[in-house]
Specification:
Elements: E1 2-10, E2 20-28, E3 32-37, H1 43-51, E4 63-67, H2 78-85, H3 91-100, H4 105-108, H5 117-129, E5 134-139, H6 147-157, E6 163-166, H7 170-176, E7 179-183, E8 188-192, H8 195-239, H9 246-249, H10 254-286, E9 306-317, E10 320-331, E11 335-339, H11 346-354, E12 360-366, E13 372-375, H12 386-393, H13 397-406, H14 423-435, E14 441-445, H15 453-466, E15 469-473, H16 477-482, E16 486-489
Parallel strand pairs: 3-6, 3-7, 4-5, 5-6, 11-15, 11-16, 13-14, 14-15
Antiparallel strand pairs: 1-2, 7-8, 9-10, 9-12
Helix pairs in contact: 3-5, 6-7, 8-10, 13-14
Amino acid sequence: MQIQIHDLSFTYEGGWTPVFEHLSLSIDTSWRLGLIGRNGRGKTTFLHLLDGSLPGGPSLPLSPVYFPFPVPYPELCAMDLVPCMDPETPLWRFEREARQLRLEERLLNQPFMHLSRGEQTRVLLALLFAREDVWPLIDEPTNHLDADGRRAVAEYLKHKPGFLLVSHDRAFLNACLDHVMSLNRSDVWVMQGNFDTFQARMDLQTQTERAKHRSLEGEIRRLEASARQAERWSQRAETGKFHVASSEQAALDRGFVGARAAASMKKSKNTLRRREAELEEKQTLLKNVEHEAELRLEPLRHPKDVLISLQGGQIRYGDRVVADGIRLELRQGECLAVSGPNGCGKSSLLHSILGTSGALSGDLRLAPNLIFSSLPQTTEHLMGSIDELAEESHIDGTRLRAILRCMGCGREIFEMDLQRMSEGQRKKVMIARSLCIPAHIYVWDEPLNFVDVISRMQLEQLICDFRPTMLLVEHDRSFLENISARIVPLPAHDA
């Protein structure tokens, strides 16, 4: 079914920058459609305009359902949630979707609130797709999924008839999309294909616009010089009304001089206006170029080669052992990524190395006087302004803002409270904060959650250029491959 959107404009109450302005496009509810764009470009806003939770959206032929949705009785098990969420959905249909999502029966009979966040994500997807005559609007489902969970959900979505999906994981998008909608800097694309198709088109346009950019820079300098010359002519013509050369005074009357000066000034003014109009047009063309400034980093060098060594590591939550026999060695200039299923202790391992958790036991050896720069998995604790965060963190606020600008954040966020920012904006603030701290080791826990794909590629380039020593947890397969991360599996283990 076709959805026609015509002349859609939207600005948040109290805001001064429109999120959308005169947007017109056509999409189909049968498409497996991915929505791509920088943080702050309006992806989630677009979903909420479609589901009716924000005013001014179009009417739809199917009932839109936004994901993730709240669970009214989280103490119930997944099987008992089905009639609560939609009484019209038969239980067998939910069980079918759960099997396709590789949810074990034991998980379906546990209280929803006791499931891991990745398991909860898959249960919610099963509840969503078990319903009929709805159009799923899926907002960043991969943020709490491990690598196996992402593959399972991508394979599942690849066989679904239609949805609108927001995600920044390139491998995930490539696996399940057949159309892409891209919210660009100056326009919106709707095209057939997956993320690679979009990226090829974007690369071609970027090359073309950058070549045009270089050509226009010279043209703009010429037009600016020409405009300045026209302005000088205009000023001289104005002066000519009152100053006549002594050789002309006997031959010319004052009326003729004034008329000649007026004609000259009119011609000069017309030339000036024409040059300024051409200059404005050229400068407008330059606004279509997506300026991606390079990020920089100042990693510290340590006299030791091996910075972290762990033998016989065990992670325990109370009496329960979740991982055992852990071995890892992190050398200077190396990027090491800890992998494993949800709940196997990856974050606890990082916290233990940082000294903020006691869940890890074993032979852990750290090089002396290590300086860490850490990035937590969650950002809910953030509050106050960016300036206050910089002061508390003892970092340069000017550099913090410059990094955020490089990552596509508008200047308006500098005046916002951190709690009012989107999750993607808050995550970028924490990435920028970490980059401002010179360190021997950068310890990042799922740094890419909610972060747009262009910023992910910028971070890849940064890591490849400066080769900092890194210990991280991340499930974006493309990112890990591009930074040449060494994977250390952390297998789950039940005592």
